[in-house]
Amino acid sequence: MNHVLSETNMQTVKTPQSRCRASVARSDITPPVGIYHRMWGAALHDRATGVHRPLTATLLWLEPVTTLTGDPQIIISLDHCILDTAELRNIRESIHRTTGVPLTNIQVTVSHTHGSGWMSRTRSGLPGGEFIGPYLDQLAVRLTELAIEARPRMEAATIVYGTGRCNLAAHRDYHDVERGLYACGLNPAGPADDTLLVARITGQGGQTLATLVNYACHPTTLAWDNTLISPDWVGAMREVIESHEGGHCLFLQGASGDLGPREGFVGDPAVADRNGRQVGFAALSALAALPPAGTEFCYAGPVISGATIGTWKQLPLSEDALLSQAAWRWEPLTVELPYRHDLPTIEQTTSERDHWLHQETQAREVGDENQLRTCRAQIEQRTRQLTRLNALAPGRACPFPVQIGQLGDAIWILLPGELYQAFQVVLRERFAPRPVIVATLTNDWQPGYIPPASTYGYGIYQEIIAATAPGCHEILIETISRHVEWLLSSDG
C-alpha cells in the first residue's frame, strides 16, 4: 500500500495521500492514584496504587482544503478501556456547543487499554469510586479545551499513508482440548492480521504535525495482578514514534475482537513496554519508507555506467493528482443489527449476580482466596452484562452508527463496538489499493462484541457476551462496503 503502480503506465509509483487542513493537540488525562481501578474479574485490588505511564488524550482536527466542500471532523483518541454511552455523549455535546462542529462529526475513540481502570459513575460507591465523578467531569472540560486549542492552529497539511507489518497481535481464541473449553488466550495456530497502517501528517512548512497508527491488538498485556494506571503497550509505542518523528502520535484501535498481544495477561509493566516498542519500531520502519508529501516516484531514464542503470526520482504531483487528493466526503450511516434471540434478561442476570454475591461473602468468611477470586469474577461478569443490557436500545434491533469518510485516496471508517479482524481484512481487500483506516470503539462500546457467525455456539467468551445475532458481522461488512462504493462513485 505504500507504493502503488500507476494503472496507466509502469513508470510511476504512487503513494496514497490526502490533502486537507489539520491541527493536533495533546493533554495528560491521568486519573489520581487511589481511584477505583479494578478492570478484571480476577483482580483482588480495587484502587490504583501508582502510575506506570501517563494516560493521554490526542485530538486531531481535520478540515477540507476549502470550507465550501464540507464541515470539520474532530477525532479524539483517549487512553481508556471503555466509557459509558452517556459519558461519551456528554463529551461530544460539550465540544459541539463550544465549537459548532456538528455532533455527527465529533468522534471520540479509546485505545482500549485495560490498565486505565473502569471509569463509570456506576462504580462510585466502590473503594476509590469517589474520584470517578470529578475525574469524568474534568475530562469533558479538558477535551473541550483541547478542541479550542487546536482550532486556531489549523494549517494546510498532507497525509501520506503506508503499511507495515507487526506480529505482536496473535489470535486469542484458544481451544483447551484437555478441559473441553475455549479460553481467551494465545492460540498459536490461529490466524492473526499483522497489518500496521501508518500515516504521516505533514504541515505546510514540511514539519511533522502528527503520525497515525492504526493497528488491531487488545491492550491486555497487563491484567489482574497489575495495580498501576497504564496505557499498556500503547504508551511505549507512542514514546518510540514521537522521539523519532516529532509531533504527536494518534493511535486508532483496529478490529481486534479476536486479537491480543502474544505475551499478555501479566502484572509486569516491563512486558507492556516491550510490546509497545515492538509496535513502535515496526511503525517507524513503515514511516521511514514514506516519500515526501506531494510527490510521486517516477522513472527518469537510463544512465550508462558499468551497466545501463534505470534511474527513478521523486517528482511533484500534477495538479489533477493534487485535486483528487483533496476529495472530502463524509457520511454517517446507521445499520440495524438484530439482537440475538437468547439474550439474557435483566431479571435473570440480577438473580445470578445475587447468587455469586452470597458466595463471595461465604468465601471471604472462610478465607478461601481462590473461591473469592472466582466469585468476584462471576459478579463482575454479571455486573457488566447488566450494564450492557440496560444500555441497549429498546426493540428487536440495535441502531448501529458508522461514520465513513473519503479523504483523498483514503477511506476512514469509525464505528462503535468490537469487531473481529475479518472485518478490516475484507474491507481492505475490497478497496485496495486505497488505505482503509478502521477505528473501532468509537463513540460507544455498545453493543460490545460483534463476532462472525461462524464463532457462535462454541462457548467463546466474545460470543457468549455478544448482544447481536449471528450474521451481524457479515451485515456490517456488506452494508459498509456498498456505502463506500456509493461514496466513491461519481454520484456520491
Q: Specify the structural class.
A: alpha+beta
Q: How would you state the average pLDDT, rounded?
A: 94
Helix fraction, binned, reads 25-40%
Provide the low-confidence segments as ranges.
none
Q: What is the overall shape?
A: globular
Please explain how this structure is put together:
This protein has helices spanning 85-99, 132-150, 233-245, 269-288, 319-324, 346-366, 369-391, 421-431, 461-464, 472-488; strands spanning 4-5, 12-14, 17-28, 50-51, 56-63, 73-78, 106-110, 155-165, 169-171, 173-176, 181-184, 195-203, 208-215, 228-229, 248-253, 259-261, 295-304, 308-316, 328-338, 397-407, 410-414, 418-419, 436-439, 449-450. It is α+β, with helices and mostly antiparallel strands and 492 residues long. It folds into two domains: 4-292 and 326-339 and 395-488, no CATH class; 346-382. The protein has an eight-stranded mixed β-sheet, sandwiched between helices. The longest helix has 23 residues, at 369-391. The protein is globular and about 85 Å long. The relative contact order is 0.15. The mean pLDDT is 94.
Notable features of this structure?
alpha+beta; 2 domains; eight-stranded mixed sheet; four-stranded antiparallel sheet; 10 helices; 30% helix; globular
Question: Which SSEs are present, and which pair or pack?
Answer:
Blueprint: E1 4-5, E2 12-14, E3 17-28, E4 50-51, E5 56-63, E6 73-78, H1 85-99, E7 106-110, H2 132-150, E8 155-165, E9 169-171, E10 173-176, E11 181-184, E12 195-203, E13 208-215, E14 228-229, H3 233-245, E15 248-253, E16 259-261, H4 269-288, E17 295-304, E18 308-316, H5 319-324, E19 328-338, H6 346-366, H7 369-391, E20 397-407, E21 410-414, E22 418-419, H8 421-431, E23 436-439, E24 449-450, H9 461-464, H10 472-488
Parallel strand pairs: 4-14, 6-7, 13-15, 21-23, 22-24
Antiparallel strand pairs: 1-2, 2-17, 3-5, 3-8, 5-6, 8-12, 9-16, 10-11, 12-13, 17-18, 19-20, 20-21
Helix pairs in contact: 1-2, 3-4, 6-7, 8-10
